[in-house]
Amino acid sequence: MSRSERFSRLRRLRRPAVRRRVRAAIAEELLGTPRSLAVVCALTASMLAVGTWYYVPTADEVPALLWPLYADSAVAVALGGSVLLRLVPAVRRGDRVIDVPVSRASTYLQTVAFVWLVQFGVWPLVSLNLAFGEYVAAPDAWIYYWGVIGTHLLFVGLALLFPVFGRTTRGALATALALGVANVVVDYWIGYHPPLLYEPGPGLASATLAIAVGSVALASHSFRRLDGDA
């Protein structure tokens, strides 16, 4: 393939319609058969188990009512897993992923799951790098730095499949934004932030809020609107 042909293909990927077709093909490959969907669900379940294990030692220090906002990464994966499980009946029937029916209620789950997966998939890139030296010098740096960042980037990859079959509404986007703001309040104003090797300050709080807003904006851009919702 010549250089001009490669550049031509890259330029075509800049077109929204082309990107949608590529993403739909990837989603169909990863989620479109019972076997492939089971593999993705198993991977998601393993990430949920690891995330839960991370938060369990400190869970008794946080009021139970605030656990969903405290254990944010684990909750993000649980929401993503719930979205995947809703695909199972349609995939077993042989329906295409893109044709899975969507209800107004499911738009809330899909939108919030997308936003939280993106938000907390990106968050470690900021939070860990604010104390880069401490994390890479830790005895278990391969877990606490490289492992965490690599795993959380999988959150983003999973979330980007949801717009293929999902929809959103203004109410769902507003709910996702409100939860993102509530998470920042719980983590950095009340003080129930995830376990870190340092005490976070206003910089991480501001960055987390910016990531939350950006994740909602990405959801608004990526999802098609449910019929009847402007």
What is the helix/strand order?
HHHHHHHHHHEHHE
How many alpha or pi helices? 12
Described by its quaternary structure, the protein is single chain
Q: Gap between N and C termini, in Å? A: 43 Å
Written description of the protein model:
This protein has 230 residues and is mainly α. 73% of the residues lie in helices and 2% in strands. The protein is built from twelve helices and two strands, in the order ααααααααααβααβ. It has helices at 3-13, 16-31, 34-55, 67-70, 72-85, 88-93, 104-127, 132-137, 141-159, 162-165, 170-190, 202-222, and strands at residues 167-168, 224-225. 31% of the residues are buried. The model has no long low-confidence stretch (mean pLDDT 89).
Write a brief structural summary.
By secondary structure, the protein is mainly alpha-helical. The chain has helices at residues 3-13, 16-31, 34-55, 67-70, 72-85, 88-93, 104-127, 132-137, 141-159, 162-165, 170-190, 202-222; strands spanning 167-168, 224-225. It starts with a helix and ends in a 5-residue tail after the last strand.
